Amino acid sequence: MRTKVVIELEEFLLKVSVGRKIAVEYLPDTEPASIAVSISKILKQNKCGKDVDVFVVLNRNKITVRRVDLPSQEPKEIEQMLGLYLMRQIPYHKEEVCWAYQNLGFDGISNSHIILGVALKNIFKNIVSAFTSLNILPESILMSSQGLLHYVEDACRDRSALQNSYMILDIDTHYSDLVLVHNRKLGSSVVIAQGAAQLKSEQDKERFAIELKQALSALSNEIPGAKCEKLFLTGASGQYLVLVEGVLAKDFTLKAQYLSNKEYDSFASGSFKDISMSAVMGFSLQVAKDDIKFVIPDLQIKKEMKSKVQQLMILGVSLFYILICLGGISLVRLIQQQSYAAGLKAKAVVLSKDAKELDDITNKLKIAKQYVDPKSSVLYLLYELNRLCPDSITITNYNWEWQKNFTFRGYAQQIPDILSFTNALSSSEAFKGAQNRYTRRRKLKDKDVVDFEIVVK
Hints:
The model has no long low-confidence stretch (mean pLDDT 86). A hairpin with a 2-residue loop joins β2 and β3. A six-stranded mixed beta sheet has the order 3-2-1-4-8-14, with helices on both faces. The chain has a five-stranded mixed beta sheet with strand order 11-10-9-12-13, sandwiched between helices. The protein is 43% helix and 28% strand. It is α+β, with helices and mostly antiparallel strands. The two termini are 91 Å apart. The chain folds into three domains: 293 residues, Nucleotidyltransferase, domain 5; 68 residues; 79 residues, Threonyl-tRNA Synthetase, Chain A, domain 2 (2-Layer Sandwich), CATH 3.30.980.50.
């Protein structure tokens, strides 16, 4: 099972959530090497292996947030319009910033309501480099304000208090984030440039109260249909509940309520009272599909390369496995064939003992057949030969093989006698196809004779 790790970098502080466990690690500096050492230390302490899904949270004070109304519902058209909006409204070059947005929905008439987040690319440089050195690539880079929304939805025990619209005030170490939630989505967000570290004196608290009042007024007019009755306090704001209630009692009808849970109470009981872990804990509980997610080109390329390498490895392993399976199947078939051949040889040895008697009987039948068949019997042939042989022909030699040629030699005084004898043989039933192979003259007892050889096929 993969472990969910949420990390937020703030100045010289690293906030981490591993599952539902939260921890803080102080950094000597914000260089990638120091960040990587601290992240590695926390992962080892929590016994995290390589199966981790890492989410990076970007502080709200490092992000410019705008609420934009655009006359379109098509995602491609909206992105093009936002690109033009960035060129006109943001005091940076488009190449210097990284932006993301969330579509809050269509108003049913003409416009789509968009929450746009813009951050400088150099903000991501150190954190991305730190993860790259650890061979870990973050799944997403998120905005802390939306983590507050998830945290409140989990920490609020009375679900009826989460009405259609409400506000969240999260006080962190060096800044505060005032969030307007409408229809369970981030409606807008305002940063107050004061945190718990700047609220130590009465003068600082008065200045904070003035800025909080201005931020509340600005958000109250941001969405005309949003009527808020509750202001939920998170992070380090619990110690300033009285201060916030005093601001609300003068000019607003909002009621303040501090939200916490067991994990956060355990964390705050130590020496971390001025640190807000609400956004980190919120994203550890849930990361919604439509949350604002910043896409960094360098990080995206590395993730795609890593994905391609994994796919190639899977393909290679699969092909290797298939080859092993095919080799195994071939080996089994070879063994089966060899076993079958050995079995046949063993049966042949056993049967050969019985077949030897049959071979002897067959050979005897072949010999007997030579004499039983009258037309192929040698006795029959000799009988017919003696019957057809005239007195002028003398036969001196016979050569006969069963079902093969029948050859005999002899001599006569004249060649015409031999020809006449050959013709007589050819016209008979037994010696059809008889041919005179050769004739040759010689002397026999002072007489001239002609030797011959006749072949019957």
